[in-house]
Amino acid sequence: MKAKISEEQLNRYSKNMDNTIAAKDRVIAWPRMGRIDIPLKALVHNLGAKYIIPPANSNEALELGVKNSIEGICLPYKLNLANYIMALENGANTLMMFQAPGSCRLGNYTKMAQKTLKKMGYEFDMVIFDMYQSKMKQTLQAFWHVTHCLNPFSYYKAFSLGFNKFFAIDEAQKLLFYCRPREIHKGDSEKLYNKWLKIIDETNSIWKGKQLVKKIRKDFQKIQIDKNKDVPVVYLLGEFFVLLDPYINQDIEKTLGEMGIEVQRQIWFSEWLEGVLKPSILNKKESHRERCVRYAEKYMKRPIGGECIETIGDTVFAAKNKVDGVIHLMPFSCMPEIVSQNILSKVSKEEDIPVLTLVFDEQTGKAGYITRIEAFIDLVKRKKMKTKNKERKGESLVAC
Ligand code: SF4
Q: How many whole angstroms from 179 Cα to the centroid of ligand 1?
């Protein structure tokens, strides 16, 4: 059992936060990553707060982040900082920040960003969500601090809608990954995915929120696909932010899907959020992280920060489950993923699974990495064919 939350921890949100901004004057903003803006918007809106959503990550944002960050800091930090600057320029005065401890730099992001933004002359309050210490109680406290909402029904509606939207977006994305390489009419799945993003965004009733996943599944069944097509399956693994943000990973899921590859991810924002917010006593199933620790045991004894152990554990899991290949995504200079990259060559050899590592930084051009992906996919397809031929030979020998 986990130790009880200390008094100091319980008070950290209210004590350390700026109380000079009245709740009615607060304009909240948070960093961009994939489409987490949709559920967060629903959450904050239903608690009666004003918010600003910074523009989606782009070359312009990256340029701004690079200009105001120290050299060598990782790419997610630079984009987060740019998101904050853009939001503050548009009137935000309360910034939400996710933080996690460990040997990775994410633990220092908040202080660094705060210092940099203050130096640039911005006045704001930063509300920290320490995801590995904060369970539901502290999360509610942080939302109370910025909204001063006292209505329990508003909290119920905000959290119910927020959670259901997180799950709905992830479900739509999983179905998109499955249908895209098999669709008969090119573009059908993406069109449907975008239609659902809009519906998810516009949904503002608890009951409709709960129906979203079911309706999305039903709608995707209408897409005409070639069920018999031999589609190789590739796991996308690596650093959280690079995995989840299509700007930073240059929309690799789409590129692979259009090459006829089914992409599968083991890291989903909804599942991660559920895992960190749910009291551990209610988590009966083995979590993704626990599974990774188990599968990675031969190569790594303990987590070292970031998604390092997930990368190793999921690669072993992929090999054991006959997944055709693994693409490992990492930002330039990310310490935990540099460690995984080094271990992965051994894992790939011993577990007999093709692995490709792609490193992203502000200089990464699409053309360069497309050539590497194409070569990797060729390798994956050849290996798949070889395995099939072997199996066929085995079958005919048994028949003789
Ligand atoms: S995991 Fe890597 S990229 Fe992500 S915050 Fe940590 S050091 Fe930076």
A: 31
Query: Each residue of 89-114: b (16+ CB within 10 Å) or e?
Result: eeebbbbbbbbbeeebbbeebbeebb
Range 189-214 average pLDDT: 98
265-324 residue pLDDT tens: 999 999 988 887 777 777 778 889 999 999 999 999 888 888 999 999 999 999 999 999
Phi, psi of 359 (to 5 degrees): -105, 130
Strand, helix or coil for residue 284: coil
**Pocket residues for ligand 1 (CB within 6 Å)?**
74, 76, 104-106, 239, 241, 306, 331, 334-337
Give the mutation target among 69, 245, 337 for probing the ligand 1 site: most ligand atoms within 8 A of CB. 337
Domain count for the chain, please give it. Answer: 3
What pLDDT sits at residue 284? 77
Rg (CA), the chain: 22
- Of 150, 174, 189, the one marking the end of a domain is 150
Q: Residue 34: give its domain's CATH number.
A: 3.40.50
pTM over 0.85: yes
Burial class for 287, CB neighbours closer than 10 Å (0-12, 13-18, 19+): middle
Spatial distance between the Cα atoms of 392 and 185, rounded to a whole number of angstroms: 32
Specify whether the CB–CB gap between 243 and 249 falls below 8 A: yes
φ, ψ (nearest 5 deg) of residue 341? -55, -40
Residue 6 has pLDDT above 50, yes or no: no
* pLDDT tens column, 80-126: 999 999 999 999 999 988 776 556 777 778 889 999 999 999 999 98
Domain containing 22 equals: 12-150
Residue 356 phi, psi dihedral angles, 5° rounding: -125, 130
Return the residue whose CA atom lies nearest to atom 3 of ligand 1. 334
